[in-house]
Queue: 2 jobs
Job 1
Amino acid sequence: MSKPRILTGDTPTGKLHLGHYVGSIESRLRLQDKYDCYFLIANMHAFTTRADKPDEIRQSTIEIVKDWLACGIDPDRSTIVLQTEVPAIAELTWFLAMLLPFNRVLRNPTLKTEIEDKGLGDSYSFGFPMYAVGQCADILIFRPELVPVGEDQVAHIEPCREVARRFNQLYCGVDPHTEDGDYVAAGGLFPIPKAEVGRVGRLPGVDGKKMSKSLNNAIYLSDTAKQIKKKVGSIFTGRQTMDEPGDTTNLLFDYVRAFIHDESRVAELEKKYSEGDNIGDGHVKVEVAEAIEKIVGPIRDRRAEFDSPAGEEEIVEIIKAGTKRANLVAEATLYEAKKAMRLDFGGRSLEQR
Ligand code: TRP
């Protein structure tokens, strides 16, 4: 029996940060053996807000893959896919766009937050909201069961599930009362995929807002120990002295719980801090920074091995090889989808250079 599939991905808008790591990368590493994994570099989506920066998008594409490999994503076990070289995704996007009401696409809290955080105002491109439909196609073209993502992405998975049900009902004759888990058995083409939110669904940035490159509050997987220390040091709690009872629901303790893996130490820190038992913010920050460095240090070192023209060339080859494999799956899905839509006028085969 073949393994069930996973699809997830990242938009190349810069390097990966700790939010990506605890929200999604950790789950990918955990699931890499049990599932047939597809990891997508959503470079088309990068163009929706940065069409004027092709050089940056290309470099970010390389950097994201460096981050993945450094974290332990293994291109022999998992398939790394470049979105713009999978034409079936763009085609399926069109068909799915017809099955989603325009208002439904725009009523997406993640899109709204992005418009705000990136200061897009009301002059964003037509392609910007379109990416939300594209994301449905990214997922469905691989017919996965699971989509490991951070909490912010759940709002994108919901329309994907809706449009998958709709397609199956409309073109594959599946009864609308069918349970989500039974769609394929009932003759549907697409399984209804489930979001799998990581250990820490939402890790705030060091200023307490959503961790993101545009807000300048992220700790990167490529940061030095010194940068990590400085960023953790900037976390504001408002607490004055080390014998003042502290609030362990604050941002600093979100970091304690996210990164200090020794549970008894976490409990001890929480107790001392809340009782004002002679423990300063500075002390807690040192422990948090050390815990982060323990995760990031080895990633940063492995990542640096690709920081050369030869290393980047190797990355490009990995992208090409993965994308070739991915296209076999994507083309097969598109062929089935078109047949279901009575677009049964012959197929095609792709030739990739
Ligand atoms: N929108 C995701 C992000 O910015 C990236 C992405 C694109 C994605 N297509 C996807 C994630 C499909 C999961 C599944 O992080």
Note: The domain at 5-202+309-340 is CATH 3.40.50.620 (Rossmann fold).
Job 2
Amino acid sequence: MPSTAPPFKPLPSGEIVYGDLALTSTSARQKSSWLSNLALVAVGIALICNWNRNTQSYDPLLALVGFSIISYVVTLVLIPLLGPEFVRIGFHGRDLGKKDRPLIPETMGAVCALVYLVTMFFFIPFLFYKYIVTDTSGGGNREQGIDIGSTLLHTGQPMRMFPHSKLAEYLAALLSSFSMLVLGVADDLFDIRWRNKLFMPAIAVLPLIFVYYVDFGVTRVVVPKFVYQLVSPNTAELPVTIDLGVLYYLYMLALAIFLPNSINILAGINGLEAGQAFVIAIFLLINDALYVLPSRLFDVSHPATEAHLLSMYFILPLVAVTFALLRFNWFPASVFVGDTYCYFAGMVLAQVGILGHFAKTLMLFLIPQVFNFIYSAPQLFHLIPCPRHRLPKFNIETGLREPSRVAFPEPPKKLQTVMLKLLASVKLIDIEVDSKSGTVVSASNMTLINLVLTWTGPLREDRLAYVILGIQAGTCIAGLLARHTILPMIFGRDNL
Ligand code: UD1
Ligand code: MG
């Protein structure tokens, strides 16, 4: 994790002194960071202008790496500049995991989302420029379309530029991300009730789903060969697919609702919201590279290559802006990411799963989020009371985080008691029982973070974040290995 201290810090008094920024601005560290930022921008520009005279072509992926480097620097510069402004208009929160509960800027995910979207706008001409050249008679009408993709721009570089049909999907994805940004900011402003905000991503994803319906419309999925052989034992051809029809659209909707919300509820310690999105995005990039690199190095292309290249195009800038955000949100955080970031990042990840047609692979990378959601369900659906905040408790004496608890002022009902005692017996929660009456007085809140703490004992906030992100990375590695070893056996092929 980055070790450079953020350029401004909240004071223990609980207020932010932005003069801190002015004081450090002339320091050697600040100068060197300006120099390194300038150097990074220069590298970014060089990569964007990667015109190859010999082949008379350029590489959009390299250009996007350049854009992403610049978007990283821009986010790094904008967050400390805009932080005080955000606080001034009320986007702030108290860090409940620190002694003096300092007040720091919130909703910084909005800065990331904006930089991300602008990057993706600038990238449009690099990805789609003159794939189809049109002749006009001068009156503005398109008389003729000449596909030069296969003759000039694609010479010697298959799968780099996209046909214009992809532009619709690309723009629809950006529209969905933008809608998510607006709804996320609304949530940070109005602190919308959980049961209402749960469905906000369903609204944001509509442009993508409708464009998918009119433009792409693939609703077939590969099924495990043994399932298909049960239904149709004589089938010789593998892999086999079934058409899910409208169910496929419901599946996409469910993915778009699940991802942003699951990132948002695996939260409450510095660096975790942005950290988990960062780790998932890195593993998606690794998976994409397994398809894209062979096609580039050995000039062999595969039907899935284009989808994974598109996925890379969406994820690279997300990794860049998230890394910049993490530098400020990592322990001790000087900004919060806000629900805006969780929704936005979750939406981008859901989009690549949908457009790349690899939602099942994506789910393999989301095992901690799926676990946290199922584990949280009794509280989310109010079978067990759910306090406003379930983040781990800060022990003022030790400075460590401990599991937070939900208290039962009234004795829990029979069903609740059975559920609590059952979970406690398999060490999934920690309960406090009244020795006289035997009734449950309190229980640890049902989140993955609290569960880890009940198993490990109290931890410092950054160590706890490392443990959870370690679990995230570990499950992603397992998911990646399973995706390319066990699953191909079950499904009849690996589409590498
Ligand atoms: C979700 C969780 C909630 C958790 C909260 C923490 C559910 C149903 N909701 O709610 O239990 O407490 O996220 O983000 O599981 N904060 C910190 N340190 C951090 C991050 C956040 O103290 O590192 C506090 C700050 O006061 C911040 C607030 O959490 O202002 C943000 O909470 P918010 O994101 O609005 O909570 P929810 O997403 O609704
Ligand atoms: Mg939140």
Note: The chain is about 60% helix and 10% strand.
